[in-house]
């Protein structure tokens, strides 16, 4: 499998991105990486690491798109950027399986939409992060920010794509699909969710279990959470903030709680380590952009080498499970 990585996307580019690419080819026998970006700087990083293998190649792309730039304008103007060159190469070459970037979210999404294109029949692609849940599994949130203004038809497609994703990737026979709303009752919600609810309820192909409240996002009672990008982004960021707050509170209480707190923390050390690992996004990977013709994964902007490696592992699993092909096939029910 061959994956392109935007070597100049993210807060820690290019050093951490290149380190992640090296880890990927060293640990995964069936993976090759193509890095896009300033070739001289990438080679300098490879030399510093001491990499001398033949599973990493470089496509020179001297320009960089920053988070401060207007995404659509930057995609049009900076055709020699690491992001645009990577996406163009993905679209043009059949031997490339996917693209990974920790760069500007808006630019990655706009670039994927305009340079790679949508799957046949897809109205709007969606960003889909995986969340840890209380049952020890994963829950897919779709959409988390690509479409802040949505129509009911978009949410229906999100449900189909999300269900196909969880079935193909995790082997769930009938993923439980829920619609994020302000109450679990059928009549709850705004005009968007009410209309989408009725459409989803009439689709036997989807295991639609009804509305859910945001407080149950991580309960493990649902496999796919459907919403528009505005609600999804707020829900995701609120959850991230709440988790970060609680973890910091635990640390502070241990530090200020005296001898008993420190002894208790010692006994709980293994459990706390497991908890940290479960909620650590760096080990999950990134957020696939579902609905485009080829695999595009948006990694966290603060991604370091470990996260990039996790994204490559994630991309590899999506290729092996034929997730995109499953999504494309399931979308046919809407035609």
Outline the fold blueprint.
Blueprint: E1 2-6, H1 15-27, E2 32-37, H2 39-49, E3 56-60, H3 71-77, H4 82-92, E4 98-101, H5 105-116, E5 126-127, E6 130-132, E7 138-142, H6 152-170, E8 177-181, H7 191-201, E9 208-213, E10 224-226, H8 229-256, H9 258-267, H10 269-278, E11 287-290, E12 295-298, H11 305-320, H12 323-330
Parallel strand pairs: 1-2, 1-4, 2-3, 4-12, 7-10, 8-9, 8-10
Antiparallel strand pairs: 5-11, 6-7, 11-12
Helix pairs in contact: 1-2, 1-11, 3-5, 4-5, 6-7, 6-12, 8-9
Structural account:
- The structure is a single chain.
- With 335 residues, the chain is α/β, with parallel strands linked by helices.
- The protein has two domains: 2-122 and 291-322, Isopropylmalate Dehydrogenase (3-Layer(aba) Sandwich); 130-278, Isopropylmalate Dehydrogenase.
- Helices cover 47% and strands 16% of the residues.
- It is built from twelve helices and twelve strands.
- It has helices at residues 15-27, 39-49, 71-77, 82-92, 105-116, 152-170, 191-201, 229-256, 258-267, 269-278, 305-320, 323-330; strands at 2-6, 32-37, 56-60, 98-101, 126-127, 130-132, 138-142, 177-181, 208-213, 224-226, 287-290, 295-298.
- The strands form two sheets. A seven-stranded mixed sheet has the order 3-2-1-4-12-11-5, sandwiched between helices. The chain has a five-stranded mixed sheet with strand order 6-7-10-8-9, with helices on both faces.
- Helix 1 crosses helix 11, helix 3 (71-77) crosses helix 5 (105-116) and helix 6 (152-170) crosses helix 12.
- The longest helix is centred in the last third of the chain and has 28 residues, at 229-256.
- The model has no long low-confidence stretch (mean pLDDT 92).
């Amino acid at each position: 499998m061959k994956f392109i990585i935007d070597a100049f996307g993210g807060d820690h580019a290019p050093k951490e991105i290149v380190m992640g690419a090296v880890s990927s080819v060293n640990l995964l026998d069936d993976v090759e990486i193509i890095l896009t970006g300033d070739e001289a700087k990438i080679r300098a990083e490879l030399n510093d690491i001491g990499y001398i293998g033949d599973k990493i190649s470089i496509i020179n792309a001297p320009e960089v798109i920053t988070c401060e730039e207007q995404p659509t304008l930057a995609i049009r103007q900076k055709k020699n950027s690491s992001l645009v060159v990577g996406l163009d190469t993905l679209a043009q070459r059949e031997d490339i399986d996917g693209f990974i970037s920790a760069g500007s979210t808006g630019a990655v999404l706009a670039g994927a939409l305009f340079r790679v294109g949508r799957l046949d029949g897809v109205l709007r692609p969606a960003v889909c992060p995986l969340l840890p849940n209380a049952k020890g599994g994963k829950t897919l949130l779709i959409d988390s920010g690509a479409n802040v203004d949505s129509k009911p038809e978009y949410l229906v497609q999100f449900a189909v794509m999300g269900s196909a994703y969880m079935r193909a990737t995790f082997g769930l026979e009938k993923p439980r699909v829920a619609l994020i709303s302000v109450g679990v009752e059928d009549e709850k919600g705004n005009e968007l969710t009410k209309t989408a609810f009725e459409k989803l309820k009439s689709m036997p192909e989807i295991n639609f279990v009804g509305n859910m409240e945001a407080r149950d996002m991580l309960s493990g009672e649902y496999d796919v959470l459907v919403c528009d990008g505005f609600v999804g982004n707020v829900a995701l960021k609120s959850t991230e903030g709440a988790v970060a707050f609680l973890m910091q509170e635990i640390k502070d209480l241990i530090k200020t709680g005296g001898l008993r707190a420190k002894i208790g923390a010692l006994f709980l050390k293994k459990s706390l380590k497991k908890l940290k690992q479960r909620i650590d996004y760096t080990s999950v990977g990134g957020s696939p952009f579902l609905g485009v013709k080829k695999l595009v994964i948006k990694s966290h902007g603060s991604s370091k080498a470990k996260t990039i490696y996790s994204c490559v592992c994630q991309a590899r699993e999506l290729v092996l499970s034929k997730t995109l092909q499953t999504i494309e096939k399931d979308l046919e029910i809407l035609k």
